[in-house]
Design goal:
about 170 residues; eight-stranded antiparallel beta sheet; alpha+beta; Pnp Oxidase, Chain A; 4 helices
């Protein structure tokens, strides 16, 4: 983590819609000796409970779900365009079946928050302490088109995390 500098979340210059929805991110939970990561393009940033937060959603069927459920913290890692193929693999292959680091060439490293993992190639890392979770419930969808994202099962769980460290290159 030596070549990262700590910045305030307010100093992030990226467009949050492009950062999450366009560039994608890796959600990672667990320590470097036992972790899993997955690509995500749903999530965001904001302020709630007088805290800077990041939120993300994970389906219970994803292997990363098991790790984030046990962990007190998680990381959101962002990469340059040259890692798009690696992010594609991390979003379509399960850590139950392959070693994602070996398959992608990404190098897992310990985050600055104890018990977290990120990747040496990341350009920005947001480390979050879990504050809240909520299962998405289809009976609360107010727009019927939302249901098109599901097969009537495996609805996401939303996690809200307080941003405790923001690291950038």
């Amino acid at each position: 983590m030596n070549d990262f500098k700590t910045i305030k979340p307010e100093d992030i210059k990226d467009n949050p819609f492009e950062l999450v929805g366009g560039d994608w991110m890796l959600i990672t939970a667990g320590s470097p000796d036992k972790y899993n990561t997955m690509t995500a393009s749903w999530g965001g940033f904001g302020v709630i409970w007088k805290k800077n937060i990041a939120w993300c959603v994970i389906r219970p069927s994803r292997y990363t779900y098991e790790f984030i459920e046990k962990a007190g913290s998680f990381t959101l890692s962002f990469f340059g365009d040259e890692y798009r193929d690696a992010l594609g693999i991390c979003g379509t292959k399960s850590g139950r079946d392959i070693d994602k680091a070996a398959a992608t060439g990404l190098t897992p490293i310990a985050g600055s928050t104890p018990g977290t993992t990120t990747f040496a190639q990341a350009r920005m890392v947001i480390e979050c302490k879990k504050l809240y979770y909520q299962d998405l419930q289809p009976e609360h969808f107010l727009d019927e088109s939302i249901e098109d994202n599901y097969d009537k099962t495996d609805y996401h769980r939303m996690y809200i995390g307080e941003i405790v460290n923001c690291l950038s290159r």
